[in-house]
Amino acid sequence: MNQVRQIKTVAELRAFRQEVGRHPQRVALVPTMGALHQGHLALVKAAWDRCEQVIVSIFVNPMQFGPHEDYGRYPRTLDHDMELLSAYPGTVVFTPSVEEMYPTGPSWTIVSIPRMTGTMCGLHRPGHFEGVCTVVAKLFNIIQPDMAFFGQKDGQQLAIIRKMAADLNFPVEIVAVPTVREPSGLALSSRNQYLDSEDLRRAPRLYQALRQARDRFEQGERTGSVLLDVVHNVLADADITPEYIALVDYHTLEPVEQITDRPVMLALAAQIGKARLIDNVVLTGSEKPRHP
């Protein structure tokens, strides 16, 4: 199969997966909500580098949007997405409708990890990660991938999905792919489309703040409050009020006051114009982040 193939139904995808299963090859899943950019394509490339078959899902999941969030205006650019994916022949693109994924209406079954979802983004977006976990669990069940590829930019999501897969015994290796950035340092995001010229001038300060804190860490600083202050001060100079700044354990998302050998994540979120943007950097001591 040399061209990109679109599949719209669960039944057709399961039939395809059964056919693929007759051959000794690894299957990768790259879950997305569409509006693809080079960050997504980095996930697809990483998946093809490690697997013999790649399935990209494009589904704007209503379960992970709050009542006053941007579900209705979230960019939907399927034709452009398919054109971008044509650079990776053999890719299967799963594009189910809401009715296909939730045939009886909103799911009564919710997958939740309260110890990890009630902080950071979850504190400000109630129900968001429950929606993410539920739809990813459904995709794991439907597709039965050997590996699933997620961007490090969504660091909290990555930790939560990794924990969910372990707790529910999904035989899926969760692979983290480094954040792709603009030359300015701004992390690529589908929501960057909401930014106007003034926003695009200010938004790179998010990563600049994280980078300055990382520099302090690399110079030997291990006190969490000091690193958080570095980020806060850079943002204040840019007149940016963060939604949150957090220093947490890379795997458990528990707050960290003093960095030891375990890897930690310094993360933030802020509203820049009409876009809610997130970013993070991983700070590692002697122990490197595990990607089970």
Estimate the strand proportion: 15-25%
Number of domains: 2
Low-confidence stretches: none
Number of strands: 9
Shape, principal axes of CA atoms:
globular
Count of helix runs = 11
Strand order of the largest sheet: 1-4-3-2-5-6
Main β-sheet description: 6 strands, parallel
Helical fraction: 25-40%
* CATH level-3 fold name of the largest domain: Rossmann fold
Distance between the termini: 30 Å
Sequence of secondary-structure elements: EHEHEHEHHHHEHEHHHEEE
User: Would you tell me the overall average pLDDT?
Assistant: 95
| CATH homology superfamily name of the largest domain | HUPs
Query: Which structural class do you get from the secondary structure elements?
Result: alpha/beta
InterPro entries: Cyt_trans-like, Pantoate_ligase, Pantoate_ligase_C, Rossmann-like_a/b/a_fold
Protein name: Pantothenate synthetase
Pathway: Cofactor biosynthesis; (R)-pantothenate biosynthesis; (R)-pantothenate from (R)-pantoate and beta-alanine: step 1/1
Binding site for beta-alanine: 64
Q: What features would you describe in this structure?
A:
The structure is a single chain. The protein is 37% helix and 18% strand. By secondary structure, it is α/β, with parallel strands linked by helices. The chain folds into 2 domains: 5-177, HUPs (Rossmann fold); 192-280, Pantoate-beta-alanine ligase, C-terminal domain (Pantoate--beta-alanine Ligase, Chain: A,domain 2), CATH 3.30.1300. The strands form 2 sheets. The chain has a 6-stranded parallel beta sheet, sandwiched between helices. β3 (53-58), α3 and β4 (92-94) form a beta-alpha-beta unit. The longest helix has 16 residues, at 128-143.
